[in-house]
């Protein structure tokens, strides 16, 4: 009888395994069916496409910002002529700086009346541009946007158009080189920028916080480095095999991945430190900044492929736990807990990027979850975002997590774009699991 026990065990296990797989398939089929029958998702898609007939960031902004445009270009390509999108991408290259840098926003010259230091170019008469110098994502955003344009249209001719003495392909690589020259830490092997809140564009001290000044504290964060690696991946995916790059970009990206793990990621807490400082911290010695969770940069790190499935699950769990601490928060809450007012006088707690709730980044985490197979989590965490769009009958820049009220710009195309892309991914998964 003893010899029969292992045989019986071997017979039971395959049956049990088959039943588990069958049950899992049934759950996936049911989930796919519920996604495809969810009329709210159809409503969001329809409203998003209606809004994406324009290119400015929203009703409060006259500019077209590249960091925003990069997140809604997929939708714009569905409702606008291809050449309209192509011309806007080219406009950012026409405004490219003498060192290869890319501007933040472009606007008609007669409407350039904000306190920015405007830039003009003979290559773009009638236009003005400006650069929020505390950021390090403009170059990465433009390269990512060009890749989305090519994937959606199949139009590779944009790469070979020539502006002055360089093709667009060469200008993209020039922009990457600019970051290695002007925003690079040799000590840490990572991209640098000014101290801001996660992906934000405002420095802590009172005053005009979007420009580098004598108060600037240089730092390294996960957002800038994740965006840069995504841009490198996109550049390498676009370039023809016959094109000879200026350096081994795969090696650069591999070095950043290694150094992100070495200097920014904390394996014990399964989270990123907010900043690695290069010339001192702007915050008081008693303030423990490491307690703050950076959600947007973490989402971009997942999209950049920096994490295993176990780590993605841990990151997402921290985001949902943070959201649960505020009545009206989603995983789009920028940071948690917020910076105290005395530490960040330029942006008080629960205002704007200091623990305001931004679907603009929460929606990217939904995309990251879907791409990595966390479908149930994506569905659950997307719902409060789509619910509030429907409840408020519009797309808004950010939301107050204490009151639930929409804030900032109305008709915010960044929110519309990331939701549209997330829902598109979700429906694609569902269609394949019917």
UniProtKB/TrEMBL annotation:
Give the matching SUPFAM superfamilies.
Answer: Six-hairpin glycosidases
Q: Entry's InterPro entries?
A: 6-hairpin_glycosidase_sf (IPR008928), 6hp_glycosidase-like_sf (IPR012341)
Superkingdom, natural source: Bacteria
The name of this protein is Glycosyl hydrolase 36 catalytic domain-containing protein
State the organism of origin: Chitinophaga hostae
């Amino acid at each position: 009888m003893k010899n029969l026990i292992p045989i019986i065990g071997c017979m039971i296990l395959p049956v049990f395994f088959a039943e588990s797989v069958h049950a899992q398939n049934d759950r996936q089929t049911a989930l796919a069916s519920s996604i495809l029958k969810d009329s709210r998702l159809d409503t969001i898609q329809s409203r998003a496409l209606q809004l994406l007939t324009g290119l400015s960031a929203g009703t409060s902004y006259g500019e077209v910002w590249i960091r925003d445009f990069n997140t809604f270009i997929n939708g714009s390509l569905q409702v606008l002529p291809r050449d309209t999108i192509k011309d806007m991408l080219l406009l950012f290259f026409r405004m490219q700086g003498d060192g290869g840098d890319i501007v933040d926003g472009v606007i008609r010259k007669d409407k350039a009346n904000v306190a920015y230091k405007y830039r003009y170019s003979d290559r773009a008469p009638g236009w003005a541009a400006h650069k929020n110098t505390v950021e390090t994502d403009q170059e990465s955003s433009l390269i990512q946007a060009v890749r989305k344009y090519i994937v959606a249209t199949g139009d590779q001719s944009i790469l070979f158009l020539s502006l002055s003495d360089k093709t667009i392909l060469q200008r993209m690589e020039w922009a990457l080189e600019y970051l290695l020259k002007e925003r690079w830490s040799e000590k840490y092997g990572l991209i640098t920028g000014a101290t801001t809140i996660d992906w934000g564009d405002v420095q802590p001290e009172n005053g005009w916080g979007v420009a580098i000044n004598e108060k600037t504290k240089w730092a390294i964060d996960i957002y800038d480095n994740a965006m840069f690696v995504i841009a490198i991946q996109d550049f390498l995916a676009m370039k023809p095999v016959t094109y000879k790059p200026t350096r081994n970009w795969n090696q650069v990206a591999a070095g950043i991945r290694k150094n992100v793990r070495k200097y920014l990621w904390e394996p014990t807490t399964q989270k990123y430190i907010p900043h690695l400082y290069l010339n001192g911290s702007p915050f008081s010695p008693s303030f423990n900044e490491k307690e703050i969770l950076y959600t947007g940069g973490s989402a971009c790190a997942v999209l950049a492929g920096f994490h295993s499935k176990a780590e993605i699950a841990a990151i997402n769990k921290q985001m949902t736990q943070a959201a649960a601490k505020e009545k009206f928060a989603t995983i789009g809450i920028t940071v948690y807990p917020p910076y105290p007012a005395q530490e960040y006088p330029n942006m008080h707690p629960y205002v704007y990027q200091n623990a305001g709730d931004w679907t603009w980044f929460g929606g990217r985490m939904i995309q990251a979850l879907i791409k990595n197979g966390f479908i149930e989590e994506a569905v659950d965490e997307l719902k409060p975002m789509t619910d509030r769009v429907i409840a408020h009958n519009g797309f808004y820049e950010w939301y107050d997590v204490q009151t639930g009220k929409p804030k900032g710009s109305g008709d915010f195309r960044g929110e519309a774009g990331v939701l549209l892309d997330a829902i598109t991914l979700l429906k694609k998964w569902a269609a394949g699991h019917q």
